[in-house]
Design a protein that fits this description.
The chain has 107 residues and is α/β, with parallel strands linked by helices. Helices cover 29% and strands 27% of the residues.
Length: 107
Protein backbone atom coordinates (compact mmCIF):
# COMPACT_ATOMS: atom_id res chain seq x y z
CA UNK A 1 0.00 0.00 0.00
CA UNK A 2 1.45 3.35 -1.02
CA UNK A 3 1.17 6.16 1.47
CA UNK A 4 2.83 9.48 2.25
CA UNK A 5 5.56 9.66 4.88
CA UNK A 6 3.81 12.17 7.14
CA UNK A 7 0.33 13.68 7.34
CA UNK A 8 -0.17 16.79 9.46
CA UNK A 9 -3.64 18.07 10.28
CA UNK A 10 -4.17 21.68 11.24
CA UNK A 11 -7.50 23.47 11.25
CA UNK A 12 -8.67 23.36 7.62
CA UNK A 13 -5.41 22.11 6.15
CA UNK A 14 -3.99 18.65 5.48
CA UNK A 15 -0.23 18.64 4.90
CA UNK A 16 1.00 15.68 2.89
CA UNK A 17 4.76 15.39 3.39
CA UNK A 18 6.89 13.12 1.25
CA UNK A 19 10.60 12.96 2.10
CA UNK A 20 13.30 11.83 -0.31
CA UNK A 21 16.88 11.08 0.70
CA UNK A 22 18.34 12.89 -2.28
CA UNK A 23 18.85 16.37 -3.67
CA UNK A 24 16.44 18.25 -5.91
CA UNK A 25 18.65 17.42 -8.88
CA UNK A 26 17.76 13.74 -8.91
CA UNK A 27 16.83 12.08 -12.19
CA UNK A 28 13.70 10.77 -10.46
CA UNK A 29 12.33 14.26 -9.75
CA UNK A 30 9.27 13.93 -12.01
CA UNK A 31 8.45 10.50 -10.56
CA UNK A 32 8.63 11.87 -7.02
CA UNK A 33 6.50 14.86 -7.98
CA UNK A 34 3.78 12.64 -9.49
CA UNK A 35 3.87 10.38 -6.44
CA UNK A 36 3.25 13.34 -4.11
CA UNK A 37 0.48 14.68 -6.38
CA UNK A 38 -1.16 11.25 -6.27
CA UNK A 39 -1.14 11.17 -2.48
CA UNK A 40 -2.80 14.60 -2.38
CA UNK A 41 -5.48 13.75 -4.92
CA UNK A 42 -6.37 10.53 -3.08
CA UNK A 43 -7.27 12.53 0.00
CA UNK A 44 -9.70 14.61 -2.02
CA UNK A 45 -11.20 11.49 -3.59
CA UNK A 46 -11.36 9.07 -0.68
CA UNK A 47 -11.70 11.03 2.53
CA UNK A 48 -14.92 12.87 3.35
CA UNK A 49 -13.30 15.44 5.69
CA UNK A 50 -10.31 16.14 3.44
CA UNK A 51 -12.70 17.19 0.66
CA UNK A 52 -13.60 20.22 2.77
CA UNK A 53 -9.97 21.05 3.59
CA UNK A 54 -7.02 22.49 1.74
CA UNK A 55 -4.53 19.73 0.90
CA UNK A 56 -0.94 21.01 0.77
CA UNK A 57 1.59 18.66 -0.79
CA UNK A 58 5.26 19.02 0.16
CA UNK A 59 8.08 17.11 -1.50
CA UNK A 60 11.08 17.45 0.80
CA UNK A 61 14.58 16.76 -0.53
CA UNK A 62 16.79 15.88 2.45
CA UNK A 63 20.07 16.69 0.71
CA UNK A 64 19.11 20.12 -0.55
CA UNK A 65 19.42 23.42 1.30
CA UNK A 66 17.71 26.78 0.88
CA UNK A 67 15.43 25.43 -1.84
CA UNK A 68 11.78 26.30 -2.31
CA UNK A 69 9.54 26.38 -5.35
CA UNK A 70 6.05 25.30 -6.33
CA UNK A 71 5.91 22.90 -9.26
CA UNK A 72 2.56 21.69 -10.57
CA UNK A 73 0.88 22.55 -7.27
CA UNK A 74 3.43 20.82 -5.03
CA UNK A 75 5.80 22.63 -2.68
CA UNK A 76 9.25 21.29 -3.55
CA UNK A 77 11.51 22.24 -0.68
CA UNK A 78 14.58 21.54 1.39
CA UNK A 79 14.07 20.61 5.06
CA UNK A 80 15.11 24.07 6.25
CA UNK A 81 12.14 25.60 4.38
CA UNK A 82 9.47 23.34 5.89
CA UNK A 83 8.80 25.62 8.90
CA UNK A 84 8.10 28.52 6.51
CA UNK A 85 5.50 26.50 4.59
CA UNK A 86 3.75 25.37 7.77
CA UNK A 87 3.71 28.84 9.29
CA UNK A 88 2.40 30.49 6.11
CA UNK A 89 -0.44 28.00 5.73
CA UNK A 90 -1.41 28.12 9.42
CA UNK A 91 -0.20 31.39 10.93
CA UNK A 92 -2.39 31.08 14.03
CA UNK A 93 -3.00 27.45 14.94
CA UNK A 94 -5.89 27.32 17.39
CA UNK A 95 -8.16 24.35 16.99
CA UNK A 96 -7.55 20.81 18.13
CA UNK A 97 -8.50 18.20 15.58
CA UNK A 98 -10.57 15.21 16.62
CA UNK A 99 -8.46 12.34 15.37
CA UNK A 100 -11.27 9.78 15.80
CA UNK A 101 -13.45 11.72 13.37
CA UNK A 102 -10.57 11.88 10.90
CA UNK A 103 -9.90 8.13 11.09
CA UNK A 104 -13.59 7.36 10.55
CA UNK A 105 -13.64 9.57 7.44
CA UNK A 106 -11.99 7.12 5.04
CA UNK A 107 -14.44 5.81 2.45
Amino acid sequence: CKRPDIILLERNTVFVLEFKETSKNTRYFSRYLKQTQGYCSRFNLHHKYARKMEVVGCLVFDRSRNYREIIEGIHCISPDKLPEILKEACPEPKKYFRINEWMDGFE
